[in-house]
Amino acid sequence: MTPVQAIVAKELRSYFVSPVAYVVGSVFLLIFGVLSYLAVVNAGNQAVRMMQLQGMAAQLNLNDLVFRPTFYSTAIVLLLVLPLLTMRLFAEERKLRTFELLLTSPIGITDIVLGKFLGAYLIYLGLLALTGLVPLVLALYSSFDWHPVLTGYLGLALLGALFLATGVLASALTENQIVAAFLSFGILILVWLLGGLGSVLGDTPLGNVVSYLSFIEHYDRLVRGLVDTKDLVYYLCGLVFMLFLAHRVVESHRWK
Fold this sequence. Notes:
Elements: H1 3-17, H2 19-54, H3 62-86, H4 91-95, H5 99-103, H6 109-131, H7 133-141, H8 146-173, H9 177-201, H10 205-213, H11 215-223, H12 229-254
């Protein structure tokens, strides 16, 4: 077993013996289910109204009426939920005074940071896989285009990775788990708001740069079924940058 695999296994055991992962997972799945149900009910109501007006069965676009609004709302839910998954990663180690033991172990800092991130990311991917039951059930009763659904899930996977990497950084900065969660939430909100600031600056070089830094436009294109290399590069660079900062923060503690 490699050092990264050992850290991942340790983190997964910590998640499964802690009530936090169960509570966070249950809340996330419940909210996703409610959002999907409301979107389906709204689509059904529109179908009834169109049938009353046209006198014939209406052809509805489930991608626009169900999946797209559900994916947009889920991004907001992730903003609130994922910092709770990462808040304990380093903060708990520092509070329990096991952080020094971890730093003096033969495991490298890169392995530690990567292992803790992957542990949280595997939990998130498991939750995301469970939400796949919604399109699978809808596919039994109606037809829709799977391509935007799959790219929407790709967007959720990339967005979640970026959010979790930010949470790893926030947890490395403090020994208080609540502070780590709020710090992660604050960073993500600020990056989110860059999209609005870019709109205010308009079609100027500065406005274009500020808009690119926000994850809104990149996520929006994926939800609409558009896979652009620059969006994938954005998420990959953001992920590497956040984990690099977390690595430097943890490394700074080794030399204190």
